[in-house]
Amino acid sequence: MSAALVPSALRLLRRRAGAAYTAAALATAANTVPDVLRQVLVWRSPSSAAALAVDVVGFLTALVAQVWLVGALAALPDGGAWSARGALRRGVQLVARAVRTAPGAVLAGAVTGGLVSALVTLPASVAALGWRSVLGPLGDPPVGAFAVAAVSDVVASALTLPYLALVVVLAARGLGGAGAGRGTA
């Protein structure tokens, strides 16, 4: 089943792109505020420990956004609408089930989504900020360079969050064969 989930999620994403990307835009916007604020808090800090702490907070806020999106998109395989109501609770349940029943599929979705995200955000971030600021403390970057890196992160998130969410939804439901995601649009 794991091997079939990635293409099934992509087919479902293509069919339900409007709903998936609308919900993903909301999750991305909600994650962007703490994402930018956490960077601003250590803007001038040369500390690697501060940079690591900021990255941990960023990972956790992104994880909450991803889990919320999983729950929000849960009805898409059946042709249903995305729903914000109860999405975080539903997302936690679906993620737990997917990790328990199809860990390889979840890993494949996370790795492929992460690679696409890196291809979108790293070139722009490195060009704007330089490797040292991308990998370590920001080191008081110019505002324009920070804005370029932040926008590339937003684009990468909005692009890849729905893909991984649908991989998880399909994995949690035991779907992934040829008929997965063939609900109405």
The run of helices and strands is HHHHHHH
Give the total of beta strands: 0
The gyration radius over C-alpha positions equals 17 Å
Mean pLDDT level = 87
- Between the first and last Cα atoms, what is the distance in angstroms? 24 Å
Number of individual domains: 1
Percent helix range: over 70%
Largest sheet: none
Number of helices: 7
Shape: elongated
Amount of beta strand = under 5%
Helix/strand-derived category reads mainly alpha
**Uncertain runs:** 177-185
Write up this protein.
This protein has 185 residues and is an all-alpha fold. The chain has one domain. It is built from seven helices and no strands. The protein has helices spanning 2-15, 17-41, 48-72, 87-101, 103-129, 131-135, 143-172. Helix 1 packs across helix 7 (143-172). The longest helix has 30 residues, at 143-172. The model is unreliable at 177-185 (pLDDT under 50).
Record the SSE blueprint.
Layout: H1 2-15, H2 17-41, H3 48-72, H4 87-101, H5 103-129, H6 131-135, H7 143-172
Features:
about 180 residues, about 75% helix, 7 helices, mainly alpha
Concise account of the structure shown:
This protein is mainly alpha-helical and 185 residues long. Helix content is 76%, strand content 0%.
